[in-house]
Amino acid sequence: FLDKYSRTLIEQIDDLSSIASEFSNFAKMPKATQTTVNLADTIRSTLNLFSNIERVEILFLPVLENAIVYADKEQLSRAFLNLIKNAIQSIPEGQDGIVRIGMETYGKSVRVSFEDNGKGIPEDVESKLFTHSFTTKSAGMGLGLIITKNIIESFQGNITFKTKVNEGTTFFVDLPLYDTDTQDDIS
After folding, report:
1. pLDDT of res. 2
2. Is 168 helix (H, G, I), strand (E, B) or coil?
3. How many whole angstroms separate alpha carbon 99 and alpha carbon 58?
4. Cα separations in angstroms, 180 against 108, 183, 186
5. What is the DSSP pairing of strand 97-106 with strand 56-62?
6. Would you list the DSSP string of 106-137?
7. What is the average pLDDT value for the chain, to the nearest integer?
8. How far is it, in rounded angstroms, from Cα 151 to Cα 75?
9. Beta carbons within 8 Å of 8's beta carbon, 6+ residues apart
């Protein structure tokens, strides 16, 4: 009986995973409307959605105020929203949380960091983070980080992370600074 139950459960999980994969392949991001975007303003606007979060302090500590990138403001907000939400959800129940968001220049790019004092990411999970249908949560379809990565990369950016189990995780989003000298080259 247990063997039959296990096989049925595995088949259902495989079916759900297949559905999620098909959904993510079918779902396309809306066409980006790229324009110059002030990242500090975009982050502050996104943080307004988290003004009533209990037990978590969110700090925005930009080293610079006028980091301008060429991107779709709404899609960047969606990516930042997901990273902040994940940071909050990583904090164990009963623990006071701190999410620090920083922003500084990094070569010809701007680096936005999202640091939490949550559970961290186990080593065996790290390589799966940006894959379709992978989630460590009991709810959700495992599309948040892959969508976030796709958004960042669509603006010639990059997303990486560092983590330590039981201490927290920091995600780094690097985006090229908008170069006013080449604005005619942008289409």
Report:
1. 66
2. strand
3. 5
4. 13, 5, 10
5. parallel
6. ETTEEEEEEEE-S----HHHHTTTTSTT--SS
7. 82
8. 7
9. none
Check if the beta carbon of residue 59 is closer than 8 Å to that of residue 88. no
- Give 19's contacts (C-beta < 8 A, 6+ positions apart): none
d(CA 57, CA 67): 24
C-alpha 27/C-alpha 4 separation (Å) is 34
Q: Averaged over 44-53, what is the pLDDT?
A: 88
Residue 146 is encoded by which pair of tokens? 């892959």
Q: Which two tokens stand for residue 89?
A: 């959800």
The pairing of beta strand 35-38 with beta strand 68-71:
antiparallel
Alpha carbon dihedral 150, 100, 172, 93, in 10-degree steps, equals -60
Structure tokens at 163: 């983590």
Identify the residue whose tokens are 């969110």: 58
Instruction: Identify the top-confidence range among 22-31, 44-53, 70-79.
Output: 70-79
